[in-house]
Amino acid sequence: GAVVEAVPAASLPAMPGPADVMVAMPPAVPAEPQRALVRVQARALDTLINEAGEVGATRARLDSELEAMRAYLGELNDNVARLRGQLREIEIQAESQMASRIADAQHKQEFDPLEFDRFTRFQELTRMMAESVNDVATVEQNLQRGFDRAAGDLAAQARLTRGLQRGLMQARMVQFDALAERLYRVARQAAAETGKEVRLLIKGGTVEIDRSVLDRMAGPIEHLIRNAVVHGIEAAAPRRAAGKAATGALTLEVQQEGNEVVLHFVDDGGGLDLARIRARAVERRLLAPDDDASEARLTELIFAPGFSTADAVSELAGRGVGMDVVRAETVALGGRITLESKPGQGTTFTVHLPLTTAITQVLVISLGARRYAVPSGMIDQVQQLRAPALLDAYNQGRLTVAGAEVPFFYFGALLEEGNAIAAGRKYSPVVLVRSGAERVAVHVDDVVGNREVVVKHIGPHLARLEGIAGATTLGDGEIVLIYNPVVLAQRFVRERGQPAPQTPAQPAVQAQMGAVAELASDGTTEPVRGLAVPPTVMVVDDSLTVRKATQRLLGRAGYQVVLARDGVDALKQLQDVMPDAMLVDIEMPHMDGFDLTRNVRSDARTAHMPLVMITSRTADKHRRYAEEIGVNVYLGKPYNEDELLGTLHRLLGERAAGTAGSVAQMLGDAPAG
After folding, report:
1. CA–CA dist 202, 11 (Å, integer)
2. Residue 484 Ramachandran class (φ > 0 left, ψ -120 to 50 alpha, else beta)
């Protein structure tokens, strides 16, 4: 009695076994009617793809080194310009001294002006220094031209590498129709055993997908078909009574969207029986009898391990192994699965899969000095939150996105990292991550950007840890773990519990140590209690050596350091970062330290910020003028390191490094200044 109509989208020749891949080669003779084929081990092809990925990683490393060289050339160009200006001042001084000597000589009538030796050794040195500066400028220009040529060659090599990777990946791709006959057979068997009439239609079977992805998803796709036949499609008589065709329709549509393959699996059955799901969930103690679970929550229960609504165990249903395995395999491949059900009309499963698991797109984020990655397919959006909204999200434990509340976490808390992050930013990045129907909002220190990376095997030990989806190597050689933040959040809630919602007026003492405590510089928003923040110091100096040396000193002392090369750069960065103190030099191009101080003191946001001036101009008139315009402390170069650290400690008080990490001291403290 069972009737199955298999409607293939295209017919294909027999495919090789799972261990081999067919690779098409160009014909040796143009007139040959048959194209030559060579059988290649899939393992060998994987090795070639990994090697091509390593070439790309090496190119990315060279790219980062060239970017560093570009910064060094910029510093060299600024230094040459500054040196040329200083030399011009020396020449003017020398000329004025020479004119003075000539006037004195004429007055004394010791020499005739025609026989007076106008050029002394001082003038000769200035001329030679000018020639040396010009020579250095010429070398800098030659370096810049060489750098531009190298950057162009590297860009061309990047295009060739991407073409090589695409070619190798294409050799590993097979059409989805390679699985068609197997799926038709599963549908026929399931229909025959249940006595139902089913028609399976596969659309878009010519879409290509990685052979390894297709092999791993074959079992889950088969289970979706069996599940639809057993639980979704009704028997012929009930279907006629409901005004439907006697033959149930199953449609599997395959589409390629960017770097993903999307499977839409639709049946026209009766939809999910939510009442039966609720009863079985109460029976298995997944729900309390009085729990008023929403429709979305009941729908998610079908993915619970061991969950089944079948009354009897058979080859097709009732074994409690099914949809949880489908989701687990999908997530393991870096994909996601969602479903939508309409009572009496049917159910739609949507499966998002990566085109390939060898090369993938990730979003690189940072936490302190370390970088981590999240699969780009899981990213819903990245938001930049102002300080009050961020503080409210921490206090509430939730973030409102498009009218829906999403659980909110600090990424460092999910990884059990205790490092604090920089305070005082105008905007803070929050990444919204989705896995299936689950969504979480994760606050990170910084968003580095998207990268195309080669996924590395992490081994059996790391594979057992929850939340780790893989690992990769960035261009600079740093090993970065690829995480699933949704799984990390689920583990965090399971082990520590969700923070209780509090109003902003009564901040919650949360377990998320190391996040933001005080971001609002206006003092109108109460800080989140129990969260440590490192003090931030901005160093403004045109000397690269001074900036780096001061950064190392303050970094060792526990400060977060922001660098600016002159007053204009400092004012630009003050739009996004609000430091606790500033260290300022006087003599700088574009805007000197005095002008910068006047601008800082005239801004209401920074009017009371501690400001330390460190300069080689130690004359009393400079010191007095600095005090008049609002400089707190005036130090001469070279400064004493202990004196500088002691000065910062005195100016910042409890916000200074070494004291800001104490929870007791952080409770209710307002930002310094």
Report:
1. 12
2. beta
- Which are the contacts of 480, defined by CB distance < 8 A and separation ≥ 6? 364, 371, 372, 373, 453, 471, 472, 473, 474
Of 274, 273, 251, 272, residue with least CA distance to 263: 251
Tokens for 303?
A: 């993915």
- Could you tell me how many residues make up the chain? 673
Classify each residue of 38-60 as buried b or exposed e, where b means 16 or more C-beta atoms within 10 Å of its C-beta.
Answer: eebebeebeebbbebbebbbebb
pLDDT, tens digit, for every residue of 466-523? 778 778 887 677 888 888 888 888 888 877 755 433 333 333 333 333 334 444 444 4
Residue 618 has pLDDT above 80, yes or no: no
Answer yes or no: is 558 within a domain.
Answer: yes
**Amino acid 238: pLDDT:** 85
Bridge partners for 2 per DSSP: none
Least confident of 334-338, 411-415, 561-565, 601-605: 334-338
Say whether pTM exceeds 0.70.
Answer: no
Residues 257 and 341 in one domain: yes
Containing domain of residue 245, as a range?
A: 175-354
List the helix and strand counts (H, then E) for the chain.
Answer: 18, 25
* pLDDT tens digits for range 9-33: 444 444 444 444 333 444 554 554 5
Do 407 and 306 belong together in one domain?
no
Do 564 and 596 share a domain, yes or no? yes
> Of 496, 528, 552, which marks where a domain is finished?
496
